[in-house]
Amino acid sequence: MQERAARAFPAMVLDHLDGWWLRYGDSGAWWASSVLPHSDAVPADLSGTIRSVEEFYAGHGTCTRFQISPGACPVGLDDALAKRGYRADSTMSLQSAPTAQVIDRLPGDGLRVRLDDQPTDAWFDAWLAVHASGGDPGREWDMLRRVRQRSGYASVLTEAGVVAAGRAVIETGWAGVFGMATPPAARGRGAARTILAALARWAADHGTEHLYLQVQPDNTAARRLYDGAGFTELCRYHYRTGGQRRGSPADRRT
Q1: Do 13 and 23 meet the contact criterion of CB atoms below 8 Å apart?
Q2: Looking at residues 217-244, what average pLDDT do you find?
C-alpha cells in the first residue's frame, strides 16, 4: 500500500538497491524523497548498503531519510540507523476503509462539489493555501503531472470560489486519498466531509472497493473525520532522518 502511495507522489529520480526504493524529488512532499527499504531480507552488508544510500542522497544535495514500516523493512534496520545517529520523527498512521462504508457514513450535506481528472487552477490554489511549503509551486504541478494512475480531484465550490480540495489515486483495486485541504476561514462547515464523500463515490464509480490514507496521529480534526467515516488503522510507521551533508539545502520538513 505504501508503494501505491509512493506512485501517487512520483519522484523525479527512482533507483533500486537490494529491493529498496531510493526516491528523490524536489517538491514540498519531502516524503517523496525518502527510502522505501521494503525487503524481507537483511542485506549481507547492511552498513555498506546504508552507506550506498547515503551517497545517493548526498549526490542530490539532500539529507538521507528512511521510511520505517513494521513488516516491510529488514529486521534491525531501525536500530542500525539509530546507532548511526539518525533521528526518529514524523510518525504516521496508515488507515483503510471499505469504500461503500465511507459512502454510507458520509451522506450528502448540500454543498456543491466538482470532480476533475486533472487539477484545476482553483483546486491547486485551495490546496496550496494549506500545504504550501515555501518552495516553487511549479514543482508541485510537475509532481502531479508525473502521476500515471487514474486520479480524481474534488473541489467544494461556493460563491467565493473553491473552499476545500482533495485528490484520490486509483491503483489495483485501491484508492488512496491525498491532499485534503480546507483553508482556515472555511473550516467547520463540513467541506472536508463533502470532499471525502465525493472521492469515495468517485472511487466506487471506478470499481474501487477500498480506500486508504495516511494521517498524523495528533491531527485531531482529521482523525475525527476519518474515524467517523469508518477508517481503521493498519499500522504506524515513522521516518529516520540523517544529518545534512555539507553544502546540502536545509531540511524542508514543516
Answers
A1: yes
A2: 93
Taking the CA atoms of the chain, what radius of gyration do you get in angstroms? 19
Report which secondary-structure segment, H or E, holds 124.
Answer: helix 121-131
Query: What are the angstrom distances between the C-alpha of 219 and each of 172, 175, 195, 225, 226?
Result: 28, 21, 18, 10, 11
Q: Are 122 and 162 in contact (CB under 8 A)?
A: yes
Q: Is 202 helix (H, G, I), strand (E, B) or coil?
A: helix
Q: Which amino acid is at 112?
A: R
CA dihedral in degrees (195, 200, 201, 203; nearest 10)?
120
Phi first, then psi, for residue 170 (nearest 5°) are -100, 135
Element (H, E) at 238: strand 232-241
Q: The dihedral of CA 237, 243, 248, 254: what is its sign?
A: positive
pTM (2 d.p.): 0.90
What DSSP designation does 42 have?
Answer: P
Q: pLDDT digit string (tens) for 19-49?
A: 899 999 888 788 889 999 988 788 889 999 9
> pLDDT averaged over the chain?
90
Query: Is residue 3 classed as helix, strand or coil in its secondary structure?
Result: helix
> Which residue in this structure is represented by grid cell 485551495?
126
Q: Which cell goes with 212?
A: 486508504
175-222 pLDDT, tens per residue?
999 999 998 877 888 899 999 999 999 999 999 999 999 999 999 999
Closest CA to 238 of 95, 86, 68, 87: 68
